[in-house]
Amino acid sequence: xxxxxxxxxxxxxxxxxxxxxxxxxxxxxxxxxxxxxxxxxxxxxxxxxxxxxxxxxxxxxxxxxxxxxxxxxxxxxxxxxxxxxxxxxxxxxxxxxxxxxxxxxxxxxxxxxxxxxxxxxxxxxxxxxxxxxxxxxxxxxxxxxxxxxxxxxxxxxxxxxxxxxxxxxxxxxxxxxxxxxxxxxxxxxxxxxxxxxxxxxxxx
Length: 204
Description:
By secondary structure, the protein is an all-alpha fold.
């Protein structure tokens, strides 16, 4: 990771944890341990910094998705891993970060929404169809409807009034939103693989 990539990553982590508007430029300089001149070489304004952070984050997410699909033993494992990673990441966003993106950085928010649509079209939907064709999920499962349900659930997790972080952890939500639902759609072969994945990934 280059110096610029490191700074963008660390800045995004701060934004996600505390919100964008809650962090001043001086706060950024202190937390990142860089000078104002160095920050200006990376981005000329806070708005540009947020945009660069989101763009880099999206590229990293796509690279992770490609790696998951390439390394998974079967499509159901890849599907479960992608949904688990997406849920964990979305649930880690602070409410302030989400509200700031929506209200003050619509371009960056739109890019994230576009990535979620691409995640559905390019990864989740094809994986679901492959799971059906290979006998992991029921043959009459409407893959596009299922993907839309999952994406809707993920977006619902951004509402802190519904799922406050202090009351739930992402593992509980993953079981509720993903595991139990897919078990109901799975064949005996698929249920066996879901049980194996759940035991391996969520074991304490």
